[in-house]
Amino acid sequence: MSVSTEPRELGLSILGLGTQYPPYSLESRAIDVLSKRYYPESPAMQKVLAINRYTGIDKRSSIGRPDHWVVNQPDPPTIAQLHDIFMSDGLPLAISASKEALAEAHIDDAASQITHMVSTTCTDSANPGYDHYVAKALGLSPSVEKVLLHGVGCSGGLAALRTAANLCLGHSMRGLPARILVVALEISTTMVRSELESIHVHQETRIGVCLFSDCASAVVLSNDVPFSATEPIPPAVYSLLDWRHRTIPDSEADLGFDTHPQGWKVVLSPRVPNLTASVLEPTYEDLMCGKTLPGGYECPKDFDWAMHPGGATILTGAEKVLGLQPEHMRASYDTYINHGNSSSATIFSVLNRLRGKEMDGVCPGGRGPRELVVGCAFGPGITVEMCLLRRNLEGGKGGRKGMETPPETEVSSEDGEGEGGSDVGEQEEKRGSEEEAFIAKALESVELD
Protein backbone atom coordinates (compact mmCIF):
# COMPACT_ATOMS: atom_id res chain seq x y z
CA MET A 1 0.00 0.00 0.00
CA SER A 2 1.51 3.33 -1.03
CA VAL A 3 1.28 6.13 1.52
CA SER A 4 2.33 9.73 1.80
CA THR A 5 5.49 10.52 3.74
CA GLU A 6 3.50 12.86 5.99
CA PRO A 7 3.09 10.99 9.30
CA ARG A 8 -0.10 12.81 10.37
CA GLU A 9 -1.99 12.42 7.10
CA LEU A 10 -4.32 9.58 8.10
CA GLY A 11 -5.81 11.48 11.02
CA LEU A 12 -6.28 8.34 13.11
CA SER A 13 -6.07 8.67 16.89
CA ILE A 14 -6.31 6.22 19.77
CA LEU A 15 -8.20 8.34 22.28
CA GLY A 16 -8.42 5.87 25.13
CA LEU A 17 -7.21 2.46 26.29
CA GLY A 18 -8.51 0.02 28.87
CA THR A 19 -7.09 -3.19 30.31
CA GLN A 20 -8.84 -5.54 32.70
CA TYR A 21 -7.18 -8.62 34.13
CA PRO A 22 -9.18 -11.09 36.22
CA PRO A 23 -8.70 -11.26 39.99
CA TYR A 24 -6.39 -14.25 40.32
CA SER A 25 -2.74 -14.97 39.54
CA LEU A 26 -1.40 -18.46 38.92
CA GLU A 27 2.18 -19.35 39.78
CA SER A 28 3.92 -22.07 37.79
CA ARG A 29 3.10 -24.68 40.42
CA ALA A 30 -0.61 -24.40 39.59
CA ILE A 31 -0.03 -26.69 36.60
CA ASP A 32 1.88 -29.13 38.81
CA VAL A 33 -1.11 -29.26 41.16
CA LEU A 34 -3.56 -30.26 38.42
CA SER A 35 -1.09 -32.59 36.74
CA LYS A 36 -0.49 -34.56 39.94
CA ARG A 37 -4.17 -34.53 40.79
CA TYR A 38 -5.38 -36.12 37.54
CA TYR A 39 -2.49 -37.65 35.58
CA PRO A 40 0.31 -40.14 36.23
CA GLU A 41 3.93 -39.22 35.74
CA SER A 42 5.25 -39.69 32.20
CA PRO A 43 8.23 -38.46 30.17
CA ALA A 44 6.13 -35.94 28.23
CA MET A 45 4.39 -34.62 31.34
CA GLN A 46 7.66 -34.24 33.22
CA LYS A 47 9.23 -32.41 30.29
CA VAL A 48 6.33 -29.95 30.07
CA LEU A 49 6.38 -29.35 33.82
CA ALA A 50 10.12 -28.70 33.64
CA ILE A 51 9.66 -26.19 30.81
CA ASN A 52 6.88 -24.57 32.81
CA ARG A 53 9.36 -23.60 35.52
CA TYR A 54 11.57 -21.74 33.03
CA THR A 55 9.21 -19.73 30.83
CA GLY A 56 10.20 -16.40 32.40
CA ILE A 57 6.60 -15.90 33.57
CA ASP A 58 6.16 -15.20 37.28
CA LYS A 59 2.36 -15.30 37.30
CA ARG A 60 -0.43 -15.84 34.77
CA SER A 61 -3.65 -13.89 35.24
CA SER A 62 -6.68 -16.16 35.55
CA ILE A 63 -10.42 -16.11 36.21
CA GLY A 64 -9.96 -18.83 38.83
CA ARG A 65 -7.61 -20.96 40.89
CA PRO A 66 -6.66 -24.62 40.56
CA ASP A 67 -9.68 -25.51 42.71
CA HIS A 68 -12.14 -23.95 40.25
CA TRP A 69 -14.86 -26.49 39.53
CA VAL A 70 -14.49 -26.32 35.74
CA VAL A 71 -10.99 -27.84 35.85
CA ASN A 72 -11.79 -30.34 38.60
CA GLN A 73 -14.23 -32.68 36.91
CA PRO A 74 -13.41 -36.31 36.07
CA ASP A 75 -12.91 -35.28 32.44
CA PRO A 76 -11.75 -32.02 30.86
CA PRO A 77 -14.56 -29.48 30.42
CA THR A 78 -16.62 -29.53 27.25
CA ILE A 79 -16.64 -26.68 24.78
CA ALA A 80 -20.14 -25.79 26.03
CA GLN A 81 -18.90 -25.47 29.60
CA LEU A 82 -15.96 -23.38 28.46
CA HIS A 83 -18.37 -21.07 26.64
CA ASP A 84 -20.45 -20.65 29.80
CA ILE A 85 -17.34 -19.61 31.77
CA PHE A 86 -16.26 -17.29 28.96
CA MET A 87 -19.57 -15.48 29.22
CA SER A 88 -19.96 -15.50 33.01
CA ASP A 89 -16.37 -14.58 33.92
CA GLY A 90 -14.95 -13.10 30.72
CA LEU A 91 -17.75 -10.80 29.60
CA PRO A 92 -17.53 -8.56 32.70
CA LEU A 93 -13.82 -8.06 31.98
CA ALA A 94 -14.57 -6.89 28.43
CA ILE A 95 -17.26 -4.53 29.66
CA SER A 96 -14.93 -3.07 32.31
CA ALA A 97 -12.02 -2.61 29.85
CA SER A 98 -14.38 -0.93 27.38
CA LYS A 99 -15.70 1.47 30.00
CA GLU A 100 -12.13 2.40 30.92
CA ALA A 101 -11.24 3.14 27.29
CA LEU A 102 -14.46 5.11 26.73
CA ALA A 103 -13.86 7.21 29.85
CA GLU A 104 -10.34 8.16 28.80
CA ALA A 105 -11.61 8.99 25.30
CA HIS A 106 -14.14 11.39 26.85
CA ILE A 107 -17.01 9.43 25.34
CA ASP A 108 -19.83 10.58 27.60
CA ASP A 109 -22.68 9.24 25.49
CA ALA A 110 -21.59 5.97 23.91
CA ALA A 111 -25.00 5.42 22.35
CA SER A 112 -24.63 8.48 20.14
CA GLN A 113 -20.85 8.72 19.80
CA ILE A 114 -19.65 5.15 19.12
CA THR A 115 -20.22 4.50 15.43
CA HIS A 116 -18.58 1.07 15.08
CA MET A 117 -17.36 -1.81 17.20
CA VAL A 118 -14.61 -4.22 16.11
CA SER A 119 -13.97 -7.16 18.43
CA THR A 120 -11.87 -10.31 18.46
CA THR A 121 -11.43 -13.55 20.38
CA CYS A 122 -10.01 -17.00 19.70
CA THR A 123 -11.21 -18.63 22.93
CA ASP A 124 -14.95 -18.66 22.23
CA SER A 125 -17.31 -19.13 19.33
CA ALA A 126 -21.02 -18.35 19.51
CA ASN A 127 -23.78 -16.61 17.59
CA PRO A 128 -24.37 -13.87 18.48
CA GLY A 129 -20.79 -13.27 19.55
CA TYR A 130 -19.73 -11.83 22.86
CA ASP A 131 -19.48 -8.38 21.26
CA HIS A 132 -23.29 -8.28 21.04
CA TYR A 133 -23.53 -8.51 24.83
CA VAL A 134 -20.76 -6.00 25.43
CA ALA A 135 -22.55 -3.51 23.16
CA LYS A 136 -25.81 -4.18 24.99
CA ALA A 137 -24.23 -3.69 28.42
CA LEU A 138 -22.63 -0.42 27.31
CA GLY A 139 -25.90 0.87 25.89
CA LEU A 140 -24.56 1.27 22.37
CA SER A 141 -26.99 2.21 19.65
CA PRO A 142 -28.81 -0.62 17.83
CA SER A 143 -27.39 0.90 14.64
CA VAL A 144 -23.74 0.62 15.72
CA GLU A 145 -21.83 -1.30 13.05
CA LYS A 146 -20.23 -4.41 14.58
CA VAL A 147 -17.51 -6.73 13.27
CA LEU A 148 -16.24 -9.79 15.17
CA LEU A 149 -12.91 -11.27 14.03
CA HIS A 150 -12.15 -14.95 14.57
CA GLY A 151 -9.30 -17.17 13.46
CA VAL A 152 -6.62 -14.51 13.98
CA GLY A 153 -5.34 -15.66 17.39
CA CYS A 154 -2.63 -13.64 19.09
CA SER A 155 -2.49 -11.12 16.25
CA GLY A 156 -6.19 -10.36 16.75
CA GLY A 157 -5.69 -7.12 18.67
CA LEU A 158 -3.70 -5.44 15.90
CA ALA A 159 -5.85 -7.10 13.22
CA ALA A 160 -8.91 -5.54 14.88
CA LEU A 161 -7.11 -2.17 15.07
CA ARG A 162 -6.21 -2.43 11.37
CA THR A 163 -9.84 -3.25 10.52
CA ALA A 164 -11.05 -0.32 12.59
CA ALA A 165 -8.54 1.98 10.88
CA ASN A 166 -9.87 1.10 7.46
CA LEU A 167 -13.43 1.70 8.65
CA CYS A 168 -12.34 5.08 10.01
CA LEU A 169 -10.78 6.02 6.68
CA GLY A 170 -13.95 5.02 4.87
CA HIS A 171 -15.95 7.40 7.04
CA SER A 172 -13.34 10.11 6.53
CA MET A 173 -13.77 9.82 2.76
CA ARG A 174 -17.50 10.33 3.28
CA GLY A 175 -16.93 13.28 5.60
CA LEU A 176 -18.42 11.40 8.54
CA PRO A 177 -17.10 11.10 12.09
CA ALA A 178 -15.99 7.65 13.26
CA ARG A 179 -15.43 6.61 16.88
CA ILE A 180 -14.70 2.91 16.96
CA LEU A 181 -14.58 0.73 20.06
CA VAL A 182 -12.04 -2.07 19.55
CA VAL A 183 -12.31 -4.95 22.06
CA ALA A 184 -10.29 -8.12 22.65
CA LEU A 185 -11.26 -10.81 25.17
CA GLU A 186 -9.50 -14.10 25.85
CA ILE A 187 -10.15 -16.75 28.53
CA SER A 188 -7.43 -19.36 28.07
CA THR A 189 -6.62 -20.80 31.50
CA THR A 190 -9.81 -22.90 31.61
CA MET A 191 -8.32 -25.09 28.88
CA VAL A 192 -5.54 -26.40 31.13
CA ARG A 193 -7.17 -29.81 31.57
CA SER A 194 -7.65 -30.23 27.84
CA GLU A 195 -3.96 -29.51 27.23
CA LEU A 196 -2.83 -31.81 30.06
CA GLU A 197 -5.08 -34.54 28.66
CA SER A 198 -3.36 -34.31 25.27
CA ILE A 199 0.07 -34.40 26.90
CA HIS A 200 -0.94 -37.53 28.81
CA VAL A 201 -2.73 -39.40 26.01
CA HIS A 202 -0.46 -38.51 23.09
CA GLN A 203 2.81 -37.98 25.00
CA GLU A 204 3.30 -34.64 23.26
CA THR A 205 5.39 -31.72 24.46
CA ARG A 206 2.71 -29.01 24.49
CA ILE A 207 4.01 -25.77 26.00
CA GLY A 208 0.90 -23.67 25.36
CA VAL A 209 -0.38 -24.73 28.76
CA CYS A 210 2.59 -22.93 30.32
CA LEU A 211 2.10 -19.58 28.58
CA PHE A 212 -1.52 -18.51 28.24
CA SER A 213 -3.57 -16.32 30.55
CA ASP A 214 -6.83 -14.35 30.69
CA CYS A 215 -7.45 -10.68 29.88
CA ALA A 216 -9.74 -8.17 28.22
CA SER A 217 -8.54 -4.95 26.65
CA ALA A 218 -10.02 -2.15 24.55
CA VAL A 219 -9.15 1.01 22.67
CA VAL A 220 -11.18 3.80 21.09
CA LEU A 221 -10.00 4.74 17.61
CA SER A 222 -11.13 8.01 16.02
CA ASN A 223 -10.82 9.71 12.66
CA ASP A 224 -10.27 13.48 12.48
CA VAL A 225 -13.87 14.43 11.68
CA PRO A 226 -15.58 16.03 14.70
CA PHE A 227 -19.25 15.49 15.47
CA SER A 228 -19.65 19.27 15.55
CA ALA A 229 -17.59 22.43 15.74
CA THR A 230 -18.42 22.68 19.45
CA GLU A 231 -17.15 19.14 20.18
CA PRO A 232 -13.41 19.10 19.50
CA ILE A 233 -11.62 15.75 19.38
CA PRO A 234 -9.62 15.07 22.57
CA PRO A 235 -5.84 14.73 22.36
CA ALA A 236 -4.59 11.38 21.13
CA VAL A 237 -2.92 8.87 23.40
CA TYR A 238 -1.34 7.37 20.29
CA SER A 239 -1.71 8.39 16.65
CA LEU A 240 -1.89 5.48 14.23
CA LEU A 241 0.37 6.38 11.30
CA ASP A 242 0.54 3.22 9.17
CA TRP A 243 0.42 -0.58 9.26
CA ARG A 244 1.42 -3.75 7.44
CA HIS A 245 0.07 -7.29 7.33
CA ARG A 246 1.76 -10.30 5.79
CA THR A 247 1.61 -14.10 5.90
CA ILE A 248 4.61 -16.41 6.09
CA PRO A 249 4.12 -18.93 3.24
CA ASP A 250 3.46 -22.58 4.14
CA SER A 251 3.47 -21.98 7.88
CA GLU A 252 -0.16 -22.67 8.76
CA ALA A 253 0.77 -25.99 10.40
CA ASP A 254 3.22 -24.29 12.79
CA LEU A 255 0.92 -22.00 14.76
CA GLY A 256 -2.78 -22.45 15.36
CA PHE A 257 -5.65 -23.07 17.73
CA ASP A 258 -7.66 -26.09 16.60
CA THR A 259 -11.30 -26.67 17.53
CA HIS A 260 -11.90 -29.74 19.71
CA PRO A 261 -14.84 -31.07 21.78
CA GLN A 262 -12.78 -30.11 24.84
CA GLY A 263 -12.24 -26.55 23.68
CA TRP A 264 -9.32 -25.50 21.54
CA LYS A 265 -5.93 -27.14 21.18
CA VAL A 266 -2.81 -24.98 20.87
CA VAL A 267 -0.62 -25.72 17.84
CA LEU A 268 2.90 -24.41 18.46
CA SER A 269 5.79 -25.98 16.57
CA PRO A 270 9.49 -25.53 17.43
CA ARG A 271 9.89 -23.61 14.16
CA VAL A 272 7.81 -20.66 15.36
CA PRO A 273 10.62 -18.55 16.93
CA ASN A 274 12.78 -18.80 13.81
CA LEU A 275 9.85 -18.20 11.46
CA THR A 276 8.69 -15.11 13.31
CA ALA A 277 12.23 -13.75 13.57
CA SER A 278 12.73 -14.20 9.82
CA VAL A 279 9.81 -11.95 8.91
CA LEU A 280 10.42 -9.12 11.38
CA GLU A 281 13.09 -7.21 9.45
CA PRO A 282 11.40 -7.29 5.99
CA THR A 283 8.06 -6.26 7.51
CA TYR A 284 9.72 -3.41 9.39
CA GLU A 285 11.52 -2.25 6.24
CA ASP A 286 8.27 -2.35 4.29
CA LEU A 287 6.52 -0.32 7.00
CA MET A 288 9.21 2.36 6.95
CA CYS A 289 9.67 2.45 3.17
CA GLY A 290 9.11 5.91 1.68
CA LYS A 291 8.58 7.68 4.98
CA THR A 292 10.30 10.87 6.05
CA LEU A 293 10.71 10.45 9.78
CA PRO A 294 11.96 12.96 12.37
CA GLY A 295 15.66 13.07 13.06
CA GLY A 296 17.01 10.30 15.24
CA TYR A 297 14.89 7.53 13.71
CA GLU A 298 17.13 5.56 11.39
CA CYS A 299 16.97 1.93 12.54
CA PRO A 300 14.81 -0.34 14.74
CA LYS A 301 16.64 0.51 17.96
CA ASP A 302 15.68 4.17 17.58
CA PHE A 303 12.02 3.32 18.27
CA ASP A 304 10.22 2.00 21.29
CA TRP A 305 8.62 -1.39 20.63
CA ALA A 306 5.29 -2.84 21.73
CA MET A 307 5.89 -6.49 20.82
CA HIS A 308 3.27 -9.11 21.57
CA PRO A 309 5.00 -11.35 24.15
CA GLY A 310 4.02 -14.68 22.64
CA GLY A 311 6.88 -16.36 24.49
CA ALA A 312 10.41 -15.72 25.65
CA THR A 313 11.85 -16.80 22.31
CA ILE A 314 9.65 -14.35 20.41
CA LEU A 315 11.12 -11.45 22.39
CA THR A 316 14.72 -12.62 22.43
CA GLY A 317 14.47 -13.45 18.72
CA ALA A 318 13.35 -9.89 18.01
CA GLU A 319 16.30 -8.56 19.97
CA LYS A 320 18.77 -10.55 17.89
CA VAL A 321 17.25 -9.76 14.49
CA LEU A 322 16.49 -6.08 15.07
CA GLY A 323 19.42 -5.17 17.32
CA LEU A 324 17.18 -4.34 20.29
CA GLN A 325 17.74 -4.45 24.02
CA PRO A 326 15.12 -5.78 26.46
CA GLU A 327 14.43 -2.18 27.48
CA HIS A 328 13.16 -1.39 23.98
CA MET A 329 10.37 -3.90 24.68
CA ARG A 330 10.15 -3.12 28.40
CA ALA A 331 6.34 -3.10 28.47
CA SER A 332 6.26 -6.41 26.60
CA TYR A 333 8.59 -8.06 29.10
CA ASP A 334 6.74 -6.52 32.05
CA THR A 335 3.40 -7.81 30.76
CA TYR A 336 4.81 -11.25 29.98
CA ILE A 337 6.49 -11.63 33.39
CA ASN A 338 3.52 -10.44 35.42
CA HIS A 339 0.57 -11.74 33.39
CA GLY A 340 1.69 -14.20 30.71
CA ASN A 341 0.41 -14.35 27.14
CA SER A 342 -3.27 -13.36 26.91
CA SER A 343 -3.41 -13.87 23.14
CA SER A 344 -5.19 -11.07 21.23
CA ALA A 345 -5.86 -8.98 24.36
CA THR A 346 -2.16 -8.66 25.20
CA ILE A 347 -1.04 -6.03 22.69
CA PHE A 348 -3.39 -3.31 23.95
CA SER A 349 -2.29 -4.16 27.49
CA VAL A 350 1.33 -3.67 26.38
CA LEU A 351 0.54 -0.30 24.76
CA ASN A 352 -1.29 0.74 27.90
CA ARG A 353 1.61 -0.34 30.11
CA LEU A 354 4.20 1.37 27.92
CA ARG A 355 2.99 4.82 28.98
CA GLY A 356 3.31 4.08 32.69
CA LYS A 357 5.78 6.08 34.78
CA GLU A 358 7.74 2.94 35.66
CA MET A 359 8.24 2.12 31.99
CA ASP A 360 9.45 5.64 31.21
CA GLY A 361 12.12 5.13 33.88
CA VAL A 362 13.72 2.07 32.26
CA CYS A 363 14.37 3.19 28.69
CA PRO A 364 17.41 1.93 26.74
CA GLY A 365 20.69 3.60 27.66
CA GLY A 366 19.01 5.91 30.12
CA ARG A 367 17.31 7.90 27.37
CA GLY A 368 13.72 9.01 27.68
CA PRO A 369 10.70 7.38 26.03
CA ARG A 370 10.47 7.65 22.26
CA GLU A 371 7.66 9.40 20.44
CA LEU A 372 7.49 6.79 17.68
CA VAL A 373 6.50 3.25 18.64
CA VAL A 374 6.35 0.10 16.53
CA GLY A 375 3.63 -2.39 17.48
CA CYS A 376 3.92 -6.01 16.37
CA ALA A 377 2.07 -9.30 16.90
CA PHE A 378 2.06 -12.77 15.33
CA GLY A 379 -0.93 -15.02 14.77
CA PRO A 380 -2.00 -18.24 13.05
CA GLY A 381 -1.09 -18.52 9.43
CA ILE A 382 1.61 -17.51 10.42
CA THR A 383 0.65 -13.86 10.05
CA VAL A 384 2.40 -10.76 11.27
CA GLU A 385 0.69 -7.47 12.08
CA MET A 386 2.93 -4.43 12.43
CA CYS A 387 2.01 -0.79 12.88
CA LEU A 388 3.67 2.58 13.41
CA LEU A 389 2.32 4.73 16.22
CA ARG A 390 3.15 8.15 17.57
CA ARG A 391 2.85 8.43 21.31
CA ASN A 392 1.62 11.71 22.77
CA LEU A 393 4.48 12.78 25.03
CA GLU A 394 3.26 16.35 25.40
CA GLY A 395 0.60 15.55 27.98
CA GLY A 396 -2.42 17.67 27.27
CA LYS A 397 -5.98 17.17 28.39
CA GLY A 398 -6.30 13.96 30.35
CA GLY A 399 -2.70 13.96 31.59
CA ARG A 400 -1.38 11.44 29.10
CA LYS A 401 2.35 11.87 29.72
CA GLY A 402 3.80 9.39 32.20
CA MET A 403 0.41 8.15 33.36
CA GLU A 404 0.04 6.39 36.68
CA THR A 405 0.34 2.63 36.55
CA PRO A 406 -3.10 1.07 35.96
CA PRO A 407 -4.40 -1.39 38.57
CA GLU A 408 -2.90 -4.84 38.16
CA THR A 409 -4.17 -8.31 38.93
CA GLU A 410 -5.05 -9.15 42.50
CA VAL A 411 -2.58 -11.69 43.87
CA SER A 412 -4.49 -14.69 45.20
CA SER A 413 -3.21 -17.98 46.48
CA GLU A 414 -3.64 -20.86 44.08
CA ASP A 415 -4.27 -23.17 47.03
CA GLY A 416 -7.28 -21.28 48.36
CA GLU A 417 -10.76 -22.76 48.39
CA GLY A 418 -13.66 -21.74 46.20
CA GLU A 419 -14.48 -21.45 42.56
CA GLY A 420 -12.97 -18.06 41.86
CA GLY A 421 -14.79 -15.45 39.84
CA SER A 422 -14.59 -12.08 38.12
CA ASP A 423 -15.40 -9.51 40.80
CA VAL A 424 -13.16 -6.91 39.24
CA GLY A 425 -14.26 -4.34 41.78
CA GLU A 426 -12.20 -6.13 44.44
CA GLN A 427 -8.93 -5.98 42.56
CA GLU A 428 -5.90 -4.47 44.31
CA GLU A 429 -3.06 -2.62 42.70
CA LYS A 430 -0.17 -5.05 42.41
CA ARG A 431 3.18 -4.01 43.77
CA GLY A 432 5.39 -2.85 40.91
CA SER A 433 8.85 -4.36 40.50
CA GLU A 434 11.95 -2.26 41.13
CA GLU A 435 13.66 -1.08 37.97
CA GLU A 436 16.78 -3.14 38.54
CA ALA A 437 14.77 -6.29 39.23
CA PHE A 438 12.75 -5.76 36.08
CA ILE A 439 15.83 -5.44 33.90
CA ALA A 440 17.32 -8.54 35.51
CA LYS A 441 14.14 -10.47 34.79
CA ALA A 442 14.12 -9.34 31.18
CA LEU A 443 17.71 -10.42 30.71
CA GLU A 444 17.02 -13.84 32.24
CA SER A 445 14.42 -14.79 29.58
CA VAL A 446 14.88 -18.39 28.60
CA GLU A 447 14.88 -19.96 25.14
CA LEU A 448 12.35 -22.78 24.89
CA ASP A 449 13.20 -24.32 21.54
TrEMBL record:
GO terms for molecular function: acyltransferase activity, transferring groups other than amino-acyl groups. InterPro entries: Chalcone/stilbene_synt_C, Chalcone/stilbene_synt_N, Polyketide_synthase_type-III, Thiolase-like. Keywords: Acyltransferase, Transferase. Residues 74-224 form the Chalcone/stilbene synthase N-terminal domain. Residues 247-390 form the Chalcone/stilbene synthase C-terminal domain. Residues 395-437 are annotated as: Disordered. Gene3D superfamilies: 3.40.47.10. Residues 411-420 have a biased composition (Acidic residues). One of its GO terms (biological process) is polyketide biosynthetic process. The keyword Transferase applies. The keyword RNA-binding does not apply. Belongs to the thiolase-like superfamily. Chalcone/stilbene synthases family. This is Chalcone synthase. It comes from Cercophora samala. The lineage of its organism: Eukaryota, Fungi, Dikarya, Ascomycota, Pezizomycotina.
